[in-house]
Amino acid sequence: MDAILVDGLSKKFGDTIAVDNVSFAVKEGEIFGYLGPNGAGKTTTIRMLTTLVPPTSGSASIFGYDIADQAYEAKRQFGVVPETSNSYDDFSVWQNLMLSGQLYSIPKAERVSRGEELLSVLGLEDHRDKRSKHLSKGLRRRLVLGMALITSPRLLFLDEPTSGLDVESVKLFREMMSDLVKKGATIFLTTHNIEEASVLCDRVAIIVKGRIVALDSPERLKMTIAASRSITISADETPTNIEFMLSSIATVTAVIKEGDKWRMFTPDPPGVLLELNMMINKYGIKPTSINTYGPSLEDVFLSMVRNERRS
């Protein structure tokens, strides 16, 4: 059974089409990335799937439960970590966890046991009695994740979960996502961190102006723009006309400066490396590093967004 099944889902706000006839399925046990620029329709899609706003047209189901006709059953299948933390400011960490369990009718013994476990896993034990409003952003995001996990949901919606977090908190979130999937959970993830999606997601959908323009595994999406392969070179000293010299190499399509490195984009890295080696020997350039790169998911994302905005 699919964890999420979406068919022709649309949402209009007045004359504005926020989500435009999207269809996709999320397989049980996968991490599904939903990527798009600001205003693309990511959060609106989540709000419809989590029954917070009704769709204008189309349908969707969560583990077979229709989000419109069986909203209560559907809501019992998932937890949500919204982009803006939704903990109660004047409640302590523990009170927020217990309230979340009560709202879903989790028996007291079970929610207490689960709450203790989450305090330990999320590194919140020392903050148990601290009010939510006194937590740092990173700790507050951990609390909101705990509030979503207190019901042991089969499906977890994560809306920009690591936005603005410190490195330690980001690492914790990623480890927990991987661990949850190993235990059988399904994750629907929206993020602006393209590298995060590339590392974590089994499949990725790219949404632009309310429409899905691509949906596949990160590696398959990267293959669609093979011309974005690149080579970087850094050197102790470079000729003043180095940009012109690199641009003159056959099959180099663009050259950009990135800090102390020069990046050359090309569909033919081996050929460029041969010519680059001859150039190094001819002009006595002393490189400190030369690296080759395949296209990144960020390259795919930016290419799709640019193409859609031109259309």
Helical run tally: 11
Question: Which sequence of SSEs, written as H and E, runs from N to C?
Answer: EEEHEEHEHHHEHEHEEHEHEEHEH
* Rg for CA atoms: 24 Å
Helix percentage range: 25-40%
* N- to C-terminal distance: 36 Å
Tell me about the biggest sheet?
6 strands, mixed
How does CATH name the architecture of the largest domain? Answer: 3-Layer(aba) Sandwich
Give the total of beta strands.
14
State the oligomer: single chain
Provide the β-strand percentage band: 25-35%
Give an overview in words.
With 311 residues, the protein is of the alpha/beta class. It has two domains: 218 residues, P-loop containing nucleotide triphosphate hydrolases (Rossmann fold); 69 residues, YebC, transcriptional regulation domain (Alpha-Beta Plaits, 2-Layer Sandwich). The protein has a six-stranded mixed β-sheet, with helices on both faces. Strands 2-1-4-5 form a four-stranded antiparallel β-sheet. A four-stranded antiparallel β-sheet has the order 12-13-11-14. Helix 3 runs parallel beside helix 5. The model has no long low-confidence stretch (mean pLDDT 90).
Features:
alpha/beta; Rossmann fold; 6-stranded mixed beta sheet; single chain; 2 domains; Alpha-Beta Plaits; 4-stranded antiparallel beta sheet; 311 residues
